[in-house]
Design a protein that fits this description.
- It is a single chain.
- It contains 11 helices and 2 strands, in the order αααααααβααααβ.
- By secondary structure, the chain is mainly alpha-helical.
- The chain has 2 domains: about 90 residues, no CATH class; about 130 residues, no CATH class.
- InterPro entries: DUF1129, MFS_trans_sf.
- This is DUF1129 domain-containing protein.
- Keywords: Membrane, Transmembrane, Transmembrane helix.
Length: about 240
């Protein structure tokens, strides 16, 4: 029994020794160039000294050693350390199985669409008002209150449309009809907002709208970075790798 324990302990010691990653000094003595040593060590850091990657690291050393004999660089052979380990391929595979746009929360989608509409309409009105001095005469839709209502309602309704279209249990006809009704409601709100009196719906100078567009874009980018949302009505087929 004691001999079996000793044998098991010896086997474990051998296994532990076999899975120890190369150190800086060992890489320096391997014959690899300093650049190739750095490449291998970056790969070791990426796998956090995980022993299951030892054989791959050893193969990498051998390939780089053979490559440098004929003038091939690590970049020519492998690209990056992550590519050498197959990590980028795994990351792309994970991303392809990520979160579809419609899977995000309703309010995340609503704010995403609100900022999108605010950004686009503000940019459009700002450019129009800058180049057409008399555009404000019949530009009720460009009024600041109309812009706010159109963007807010558009964000709420388009988020609803996104959720409805993702509901396979509702049936295709019902989903399409619901989406059409929601879009029609948003268009009606847009038309009604455009006839609001100028007292409560003033048209501001074009440069103000351009500033609003820039601020909305900054908010849009911040929200997407925070939530991981990609796609939308301009690219709804995309997915995000953030759950």
């Amino acid at each position: 029994m004691t001999q079996e324990v000793k044998a098991t302990s010896a086997t474990n010691d051998i296994t532990d020794e076999a899975t120890i990653m190369p150190t800086h000094s060992e890489l320096a003595a391997s014959g690899l160039s300093k650049r190739n040593q750095k490449f291998v060590y970056q790969a070791i850091e990426l796998v956090e000294n995980d022993g299951q990657y030892l054989s791959l690291i050893q193969k990498m050393e051998t390939d780089l050693l053979e490559g440098q004999k004929v003038g091939k660089t690590a970049k020519q052979i492998y690209g990056t350390p992550a590519e050498a380990l197959g990590m980028e391929a795994k990351a792309q595979e994970t991303q392809s199985q990520g979160t579809v746009y419609s899977d995000f929360g309703y309010w995340d989608l609503a704010f995403d669409n609100m900022l999108t509409f605010l950004m686009l309409f503000s940019a459009m009105f700002g450019i129009t008002l800058l180049f057409q001095k008399d555009a404000s005469i019949n530009a009720g839709a460009a009024g600041i209150l109309a812009l706010a209502l159109t963007s807010i309602c558009g964000g709420l309704l388009f988020a609803l449309i996104t959720k409805i279209m993702a509901r396979r249990d509702l049936g295709r006809v019902l989903r399409v009809l619901s989406a059409i009704l929601a879009f029609a409601l948003w268009f009606l709100i847009y038309m009604l907002a455009s006839v609001l009196p100028k007292v409560i719906n003033p048209v501001l100078p074009g440069w103000v709208y351009l500033i609003v567009a820039v601020v909305a874009f900054a908010g849009f980018r911040f929200l997407r970075k925070k939530t991981g949302i990609v796609g939308g009505f301009m690219g709804g087929s995309q997915v995000s790798n953030k759950k």
